[in-house]
Amino acid sequence: MDLLLALKAVILGVVEGLTEFLPISSTGHLILVGSLLDFNDDKGKVFDIVIQFGAILAVCWEFRAKIAQVVSGLGSDPKARRFAVNVIIACVPAVVLGLLFGKHIKAALFNPVVVATAFIVGGVIILLVERHNRRNVEAGKLPRVNSLDDLSPVDALKVGFAQCLALVPGTSRSGATIIGGMMFGLERRVATEFSFFLAIPILFGATVYELYKSRSMLEVEDFGLFGIGFVFAFISAFICVRWLLRYIASHDFTVFAWYRIAFGLVVLASGYSGLVVWAD
Fold this sequence. Notes:
Helices cover about 75% and strands about 0% of the residues. By secondary structure, the chain is an all-alpha fold. Helix 1 packs antiparallel against helix 2 (about 25-35), helix 1 (about 5-20) runs parallel beside helix 10 (about 225-245) and helix 3 (about 40-60) packs across helix 10.
């Protein structure tokens, strides 16, 4: 295996794992880093799909107890059934819109300028939501939903519509669902954990679907390269999820908002100045 390609696989695997569940857009980072590494051809896009699956498995492992509890309780536990139904409800809008418009969105919007702009806009939205959140706390207004078991189908549907914004690359699926959930009355940790659970069917389904469409480009000699990216995506995602759950216990998402804004401005400035040639 080419050592340089292996190094690129490590870098992209780590980028995927660290960004998939933070409100900073894994797709946007993979587009930009793939452009820098000249690893954004058709084979590179298939690679991105494979390493995304590694990140999904990391979340499944972290929440294996809750997943097992829900699955085993579907036949007898009303809370487990309600939670499963809420996850399905929240997934429906993004699945429908993705199937209807996903191809057109990829053709028109998967480029560095759109990604950078979405980074900046998303950062501003996070700042506004966090400011609104602080005002509510100062006024003594507590979140309406403080447990995953308290989620209603209407709450789930609202979060599902928020998730649709992530079809625009650079928006961030986790950012849209977490911040959207907070706007709709979910407590910060509840919104974050629900975002993680939504990621499992959404990303798993998208991964299987995209791999099926790209099956003609899967070759045995690529398995080693894909395996490297997969492993590093799993490890970095697992570390990131655990860190984020501890972080939000005493911090808000403001730091991610400023990161998004700064990163987006750097991408736009470097591109327009000619310092970096961002390939589509």
